[in-house]
Design goal:
heterodimer; A: 334 residues; alpha+beta; Sufe protein. Chain: A; Arc Repressor Mutant, subunit A; GMP Synthetase, Chain A, domain 3; three-stranded antiparallel sheet; 8 strands; 40% helix; B: 411 residues; Aspartate Aminotransferase, domain 1; 2 domains; seven-stranded mixed sheet; 12 helices; 36% helix
Chain lengths: 334, 411
């Protein structure tokens, strides 16, 4: 069963604005071929100031499609058409306290219906060029079409690169077989062979990669790194080059840690998460995951990413520990 | 039959999995505690377990009507049995590079075949008609010495439609081709007598017949050329290595004994309740119909398409009323793909989306069925009120002055 938030359930069981509004002057009708859902959105727009006076939906679709439609109508009522067009899929999902990644397309349909209705009101013709492919990465809801296009546009040749550019495969890694298949197919079209261990065609743009996003390469996927209290032994490889660096003073070391974490934060914030430095105790760096990061199943992977970055920047092995584990770490040391 | 009921709610999803029968739980429990031995050991601890496994093997043999108990190979699940059968046939006959199956198989077979295609095998998928039936003349034309194995399900999990596997096995044998059937939905619901058929291999799954999850069987007719999937120990006569799951094997044996004792009830009591449910719902809900082949199907399964509404929404509302069923809707599957079975039968997606499967068991009661008959029509009406394809009390296309009805732009 899907893990629906209470708000999704509430909007499904008690949908707001169900049915068509009386005498609508904007109608949007869209459907999704990938799942077969369809939606009609009817609006009553004030011609004086283009304010949406009333909105109603009729949806042929699953629980989250109905809940997304209900949320959309609640969001846009009282807005002007231009304001309403700025409502994003993420806004709809946020309003519902989140949707399962596989169900994000239900909120996309709501937005498309809105665009279609506005076009209808303005006497324009709306068409949608958005193609949707089979879902490859369920952790980050990345579909086949996006992966294919990204491979072509950036001349990618390895699973690791695909992960860097699209996030696909950065979570549980179960989809790596699927990513390899897409890669092999696209590379074959270009007459390039797919070599699973091929060196990257060009250096991956590390800076573009959101550190903290679970995009760290497979060399980090060691069994011992599953326990946040275990130092990551593989980090050793990345610090050897820094081994010759002079030892930092305590103050400089703390500043460096702060700087590194500050540099990581924007990337987490982009995904509605954040991280806070709580304390430093010897080799232990205690952090608190907040926002979308807290409770995220991938939080431990994110911690690993932060840890690797810190090890690289400091030139020493440290371990990043969730603040909740402070007591446990202290006990272990004693 | 036992009077014990499932704890809460009305469970009509027995094709997904079944309650473990209380007698089965009782029979298996000692094999977690005092009877913990390894059946391979020389001492009394192992010997007692070995004997219990022997009894279980005979109980399975009896339900399947197998000639010999050595034809029963315990596995971990139906999927393992399917994979073992198909991969064994390919391995044992490397010169044969073709497989015949159907478009409506379970993913346990379909996904494997898709994967084998990438390895260069040719897969023939027999199509079905609007009621889910096969074209046997077409099947005949595909049989050749290039075919390593035919794998065809006995009963479809979604519609309950039965395939004529006994006749198809005969046809395969005449052409010198091995025949496997995935019978996980059929075993325990239909009388089966394998010794009188030409079926070489058959898969069954314990949890579909009131045994626990994690135990299955591959029936392997004596003399069928075989290559194991798992090699290692000598368990299962070297055909499936790995220490026996003794508690679950004992449980499956007991479940098979119970299934055999109750097999007539499937045809009488269970089928009667299913028919009552179906007629009750169809009479109360307009624009609904049965999918599959109602004249030739499992006694416990009814798959009803409710037009213009979506299955997950139906299930969520039914679940709120304590009723458990399942759906062929895209949104209820992890893959978000609409049911391949409904698509194969050419059911339009406005109906396929709303297909709802009710699958009963011998534990289903008449009172439960009446409650479901009362519960379903308001649920359907509530969702149709939200549907753009529906207008007041009829499809939007049929509303005067409204035609051609709702025609969304598809993305």
């Amino acid at each position: 069963m899907w893990d629906y938030s209470d708000t999704v359930k509430e909007h499904f069981f008690n949908p707001r604005n169900a049915g068509a509004v009386a005498e609508p002057n904007a109608i949007g009708e869209v459907g999704s071929l990938s799942c077969g859902d369809a939606l009609r959105l009817t609006l009553k727009v004030d011609p004086q100031n283009e304010t949406i006076l009333d909105a109603g939906f009729q949806t042929f679709g699953c629980g989250s499609a109905i809940a997304s439609s209900s949320a959309l109508t609640e969001l846009i009522k009282g807005m002007t058409l231009d304001q309403a067009l700025k409502v994003s899929n993420q806004d709809i999902a946020d309003y519902l306290d989140g949707l399962p990644p596989e169900k994000m397309h239900c909120s996309v349909m709501g937005r498309e219906a809105l665009q279609s209705a506005v076009a209808n009101y303005r006497g324009e013709v709306w068409s949608d060029a958005h193609a949707e492919g089979a879902m490859i990465c369920k952790c980050f809801a990345v579909d086949e079409v996006l992966i294919e296009e990204t491979i072509r546009a950036n001349n990618l040749s390895s699973v690791e690169e695909v992960t860097h550019y699209t996030k696909a495969g950065g979570g549980c890694s179960a989809c790596h077989e699927g990513v390899e298949e897409v890669l092999a197919r696209v590379l074959a079209e270009q007459g390039r062979p797919f070599q699973p261990s091929a060196p990257p065609a060009k250096a991956p743009e590390r800076k573009r990669v959101a550190v903290g996003m679970p995009v760290m390469s497979t060399r980090l996927q060691t069994p011992e790194s599953a326990d946040p209290l275990q130092p990551v032994s593989t980090g050793a490889a990345s610090v050897t080059s820094a081994a010759a660096r002079p030892k930092l003073s305590n103050l400089a070391r703390i500043r460096r840690i702060e700087q590194t974490i500050e540099a990581i934060r924007p990337n987490l914030q982009r995904d509605h998460g954040d991280v806070e430095l709580i304390d430093i105790d010897g080799k232990n760096v205690f952090v608190k995951m907040v926002g979308a990061c807290s409770g995220c199943q991938l939080a431990s992977v994110t911690l690993e990413g932060i840890q690797t970055r810190l090890c690289e920047d400091l030139g020493e092995l440290v371990r990043v520990v969730p603040a909740q584990a402070m007591g446990r770490a202290a006990a272990q040391r004693a | 039959m036992s009077s014990k009921q499932p704890p809460i709610g009305i469970y009509l999803d027995n094709n997904a999995t079944t309650m473990v029968a209380p007698e089965v739980v009782e029979a298996m429990l000692p094999y977690f505690s005092e009877q913990f031995g390894n059946a391979s050991s020389m001492h009394q601890f192992g010997d007692r377990v070995g004997r219990a496994i022997k009894t279980a093997r005979q109980q399975v043999q009896a339900l399947l009507g197998a000639e010999l108990d050595s034809e029963i190979v315990f596995t971990s699940c139906g999927t393992e049995s399917d994979s073992t059968a198909i991969l064994s046939a390919l391995k044992a006959q490397p010169e044969r590079r073709e497989i015949i199956t159907t478009v409506v198989e379970h993913p346990a077979v379909l996904s494997l075949c898709e994967h084998l295609e990438k390895d260069g095998y040719t897969v023939h998928r027999l199509k079905v008609d609007g009621q889910g039936r096969l074209d046997l003349a077409h099947y005949q034309s595909l049989l050749s010495e290039r075919v390593a194995i035919v794998s065809v399900m006995w009963a479809n999990n979604e519609t309950g439609t039965l395939f004529p596997v006994e006749a198809m096995a005969e046809m395969a044998h005449e052409a010198g081709v091995m025949f496997h059937t995935d019978a996980v939905q059929a075993v325990g619901k239909l009388p089966i007598d394998l010794k009188t058929t030409a079926i070489d291999m058959l898969s069954l799954s314990g949890h579909k017949l009131h045994a626990p999850k994690g135990i299955g069987v591959l029936y392997l007719r004596r003399g069928t050329r075989f290559r194991p999937l798992l090699r290692g120990g000598h368990q299962e006569r070297g055909r499936r290595a790995g220490t026996e799951n003794s508690a679950s094997i004992v449980a499956l044996g007991k479940a098979c004994e119970l299934a055999q004792a109750h097999i007539d009830e499937e045809r009488t009591q269970v089928a009667a309740l299913r028919d009552r449910l179906e007629q009750g719902i169809l009479a109360a809900v307009p624009n609904s119909f049965v999918t599959g082949d109602p004249s030739n199907r499992l006694p416990n399964t009814s798959n009803i398409a409710f037009e213009f509404i979506e299955g997950e929404a139906i299930l969520l509302l039914l679940n709120k009323l304590g009723i458990a069923a399942s759906s062929g809707s895209a949104c209820t599957s992890g893959s978000l793909e609409p049911s391949h079975v409904m698509r194969a039968m050419g059911i339009p997606f406005t109906a396929a989306h709303g297909t709802t499967r009710f699958s009963l068991s011998r534990y289903t009661t008449a009172e439960e069925i009446e409650r479901v008959i009362d519960a379903v029509p308001p649920v359907v009406a509530q969702l149709r009120k939200l549907s753009p394809y529906w207008d007041q009390d009829r499809p939007a296309t049929e509303t005067p002055g409204q035609s051609p009805g709702f025609q969304p732009a598809y993305a």
